[in-house]
Design goal:
The chain is an alpha/beta fold and 215 residues long. The protein has seven helices and six strands. Helix 1 packs antiparallel against helix 2 and helix 4 runs parallel beside helix 5.
């Protein structure tokens, strides 16, 4: 019996047009203990000591030298990362016009793939998701995650929690990995992904072979 921790973050937007992101991604960090969060916190304290005052880590906004330190920390860990990527232009129109339903579909596809691989019937599962809001539907988003885990998990028990990335270092780790994957997929820049590639267990593209194009 083990406690399995899954930390989940999203990349991309809900703009279904050429002006938006090409993909909507769900990235998770799976671990049996959260020591990587402690190491990230220690790194932040070291950086503050050096005169780089950070409240929290955020891949898109952090400077190059900070990013390199965080990606090296991730690469040295044994944390498992998985990503599900929905190519938005291949999304069915009925999902594109309902952001909550689209989000639930993305999370369902991700956890249906992931949970049977990382948790069994004797495990306790904890899923911590970034506190995403869709047009004020915060409670509905949270309920969607709970429903998805209920459908996909055979673990002995599970709990879900919803935190702001800025207060949870393990969510910041998931953000970093998701951003590296997004850079690789959206612009072909694998500078950061190449550092952590061995840690990424799967990059699942449910719509990869779809032929119907929305826009």
């Amino acid at each position: 019996m083990a406690r399995i921790h899954i930390y989940s973050d999203e990349s991309g937007d809900f703009g279904f047009s050429p002006a938006g992101s090409a993909y909507f991604m769900v990235t998770t960090a799976t671990m049996s203990e959260c020591t990587i969060g402690d190491r990230l916190h220690a790194l932040r304290l070291d950086l503050i000591q050096q005169g780089i005052d950070l409240e929290f880590f955020h891949a898109r906004d952090d400077q190059y030298t900070v990013r390199k330190l965080v990606y090296d920390l991730i690469a040295a860990s044994d944390v498992r990362f998985d990503c599900t990527m929905l190519e938005k232009r291949k999304t069915y129109s009925y999902l594109a016009c309902d952001h909550l339903r689209f989000y639930k579909t993305a999370t369902y596809l991700h956890y249906k793939h992931l949970v049977p691989l990382v948790a069994n019937r004797s495990d306790d599962l904890m899923v911590v998701s970034s506190s995403l809001q869709i047009s004020g539907k915060k409670a509905a988003v949270h309920e969607a995650i709970r429903d998805v885990i209920l459908q996909t998990s055979q673990a002995k028990s599970f709990v879900t929690a919803f935190h702001q990335n800025r207060v949870d270092p393990c969510l910041q780790i998931a953000d970093y990995v998701g951003w590296a994957i997004q850079r690789k997929m959206e612009s072909g820049d694998d500078t950061w992904f190449s550092i952590i590639e061995r840690n990424v267990e799967s990059m699942f593209e449910p719509y990869k072979y779809g032929t119907k194009i929305l826009y």
